[in-house]
Amino acid sequence: MRKLQKELEALREQGMLRTLKTVAGPQGPRVIVDGREVLLLCSNNYLGLAGHPALIEASCDATSRFGVGSGASRLVSGTMELHEQLEARIADFKGTEGALVFNSGYAANTGILQGLAGPGDLIFSDALNHASIIDGCRLSGARVVVYPHRDMAALEELLQAEASRRHGRWLIVSDGVFSMDGDLAPLPELVALKERYEALLMVDDAHGGGVLGASGRGSAERFGCLDRIDLHMGTLGKAFGCFGAYLAARREVIDTLINRSRSFIFSTSLPPGVLGAALAAFDIVDSAEGAARRAALENNRQIFVEGLRRGGLDLGESVTQIVPIVTGEPQPTMEAARRLLDRGIFLQGIRPPTVPVGQCRLRATLMADHRPEEVAAAAEMIVRILAELPR
Ligand code: PMP
């Protein structure tokens, strides 16, 4: 215990101690923190569906009809009709033969990579891929080649270098939207490379699903290459407002994972209330309301980004609702977050290992149901607070 205390104290001194912030009341564009209403600028509830009446009603209805818990893992007695309905809906959404629901995005990425790759296989992974992909690569036991972020020339060199001694399966894996930078993977180029080198391509579209593309099918729809991705991973806890995750892919991939994926096999399946809400979320994403929510989100994004850029801030390569404001070291980052909260804006500071050392940031995320004028005012406030900080 003394050692733990010392380690925690050291983290505190470095400005690296993480603590939890409680949000009172329901999730929405404004939430109650420390007894005060503040503008929420760090939620992945991008379309505002987490508190949507249709999802709440669908969740309550599924719970009252089917019970609170699923009672078992999928391979025992925990596969309910709602799991099958949701999987059929997801496969239809992505245009694949099948889909498999996982208990979270973290469980999906670790389970998919561990289930599909093993010793003797090779995984090519973008340097800024999400931690759950990194952990999945480790769990798989495959050899992992990390390529520089979005650098397709470097990836091709690495593929070429490995080609002469090739054996086993090759998998290229990338976030579709990078979670801490809001930039996009160059999917058309990744597709061309995976076809040229006969690898499988897995795209984690946790932050693109529901949001990007004319119909919200994600980053691959935006690039017009939905049918060229082998493994579509997505989450239900962000734009879809629920919880859980999925893989949409060919039947043999799904059947392999049912047999091999440890996070799928050894865990109680998602409960009815979540599944019912997720089905309602797909209805909304596919409706005129979904399109209107995507348009409102994009409008808010443009207003916010213009405000920050006018104030001289560098937002990197962000082209999505994830807007990184890089602040550098942990202390000024957390001080900026504290001052923003004082002025009514909840915007978390992000520190290593979530982002590289020296690249701490305020990771702002927009929502469809933010009001444009409050987004504009928040951008001004962020510019002002950052200018006030000691350098
Ligand atoms: N992939 C990416 C790119 C993510 O950003 C996240 C969540 N932050 C996950 C996977 C994990 O998803 P979940 O929160 O559902 O576990």
From TrEMBL:
One of its GO terms (molecular function) is 8-amino-7-oxononanoate synthase activity. The modification N6-(pyridoxal phosphate)lysine is found at residue 238. Pathway: Cofactor biosynthesis; biotin biosynthesis. Its cofactor is pyridoxal 5'-phosphate. Its EC number is 2.3.1.47. Keywords: Acyltransferase, Biotin biosynthesis, Pyridoxal phosphate, Transferase. Belongs to the class-II pyridoxal-phosphate-dependent aminotransferase family. BioF subfamily. Homodimer. This is 8-amino-7-oxononanoate synthase. It comes from Trichloromonas acetexigens.
